[in-house]
Amino acid sequence: MEFDEVEWLRRNNAAWRLLRADHAALVLSFLGRVFVEENVRSISGVELTARLEDELFALNERLGAGTFPRAAKSYLDDWAQPEVGWLRKYYPPDSDQVHFDATPAVERALSWVQSLQARSFVGTESRLNIVLELLRQMVYGAETDPDARLAELQARREAIDAEIAKVRAGQVEVLDGAAQRDRYQQFVATARGLLADFREVEANFRALDRALREKIATWSGSKGELLDEVVGSRHAIADSDQGRSFHAFYDFLLSPQRQQEFSDLLARVQSLDVIGASDPRMRRIHYDWLDAAERTQATVRLLSEQLRRFLDDQVWLENRRVMDLLRGIETHALALRDQRTDGLVFELDAAAPQVVLPMERPLYRPRAKQPLDSTVDTGEPDVDVSRLFEQVHVDPVPLTDAVRAALRRSSQVSLPEVLANRPLEQGLAELVTYLSLRDPGFDVVFDEDRRDQVRWYDPDGRTRTALLPAVSFLRRVPALDRV
Amino acid sequence: MAATRREEPSLSVAAVHLMKGVVYRDTHPVPWHHLMRLQAQVRDYVAVLGLTVVIDEAEGYAFLRSQPGDDEADGQQAIRRLIPRRALSFHVSLLLALLRKKLAEFDASNADTRLVLTRQQIVDQCAVFLPASTSEARLIDQIDTHIGKVVELGFLRRINDAEATYEVRRIIKAFVDAQWLADFDARLAEYAAELEATR
């Protein structure tokens, strides 16, 4: 790879950006758990926010308040921004709540991070077998000469016959523990990889759809040419390479025989002793595949459907015309921007007839008068009202003086410095008053990024602590000096 | 009520709902179902009133429209139109046009069916076209009023989400169509020319 290429990826690839992010651990662990481990493909914003809130709370509790100072929602909004691109945010047709799904970037970053964990051993034999098998499939699958095919099939039969003869003779070759573990590891990696790939498959379908739409929207030739050019058939998406491979997989997965065979084999493998602690997720991996594949399938169906509608003659022409007209309208509207437009009235049909039924209206009904008796019988004439007035009152004047005094020595002073000279006497109320001081001599500046701790003793002698944004008082430069 | 039984589509249910307003597949499943099965009858029925049914099965909405040409029809035969015309101010009309454009752009760039805009996005889009002299706060107030009007017209729908967000209802395509936009454009051009002449 060239330097520039790598540099470009480092800057622009969402997965790499995720790895570089300061809070990558949070993103990867949280999104990884929800979207990858639990195989969630769509979750409502409310639910995801609540889960992230719990997560943040637990982390802040453990690592100290302020480790993750922002609200869950603001993190999610950030991650879903197009230029960040770790979450896909969308409104499903049947819900008014925003929904989220992870993007393939999260899967990629996560699988890279997972690959960093040391493996107890690295099996290579099974992979060699797979590679060989793949080569064989390619060579003989593409062979058109019947003789060559027959020869290959014969050779395979001979090998099987030889094996049968061996077993009959009592020579049974058994995979040893290492070979079994090797294969199991390979199986787990492939199975998980497959699950991760679905997200990418779906994203690729979306990208394909977007590319087609762009092409359609900017097409300047005739409609017929467009159809020839872009979508020879209405299954433009399903007929792509990716679409075909995906459908073949899906059909394979849907066959009940295959499912049964898969479940049986899986159960037997899981019970082998040599595997040791088997991956609990593998037990139902094929259901997870099925879930994920179904969703992808639904996406493809939806995309094809929408694309066909978008290509519909009238919609196509209308949309192009609308875009053309809008250009003129915007120009004219800009020209009229500072003119009086009261005289301009446009008409638009309502969506339904107006049916006015005079007899539907209720008859006049005089309101019953409710006499209002405002005399209050307290029953107890001597109420002690003084307590009402004994609320805490903080006089801002001495506080302002304290700040001014401190500012005489330096041009800037922080709140804790002021409090060091003049401790809080009235507790929280007094602290709040400091924050709201107004004075021509100084400005109160809040720094949301830093935190200050303030302590005081309440009347019972207990220590109280408040955590607040760092507050400083800045001496105001007299206006004359500024000029 | 016998009229709402599923197996027996009822002309009354379909017709009455249409008289009351737009019938959407997702929010009015029952009348939608009746309407789908009785399209021809409903068509004949409302034709008597000088109305025609517009059904977009792909988008999932249906509504009534005056039969074209009735207003200018010659002489006494003209049927009085039952569907009122709404008068819209320049800015509300412009907002409609801009929303229609947003929808066209949205359709051209992805396959989601629901275009959801935040209030801020709508404000940003409109702000350019409002007099620069007005203060920021007043400007936003004005745009809010316009948005309210468009919600009332049924082309925006407030979404019950934490933020102020609106869904652009796809039915806007049926009303703010190329024809209407062309008229709008022509009127604006005319008006601009008039202003130029009187200056």
TrEMBL record, chain A:
Q: Which domain of life is it from?
A: Bacteria
Per its record, how is this protein called by name? Answer: Uncharacterized protein DUF3375
Write down the species.
Answer: Micromonospora kangleipakensis
UniProtKB/TrEMBL annotation, chain B:
Q: Which Pfam families match?
A: DUF4194
InterPro entries in alphabetical order: JetB (IPR025449)
The protein's name is DUF4194 domain-containing protein
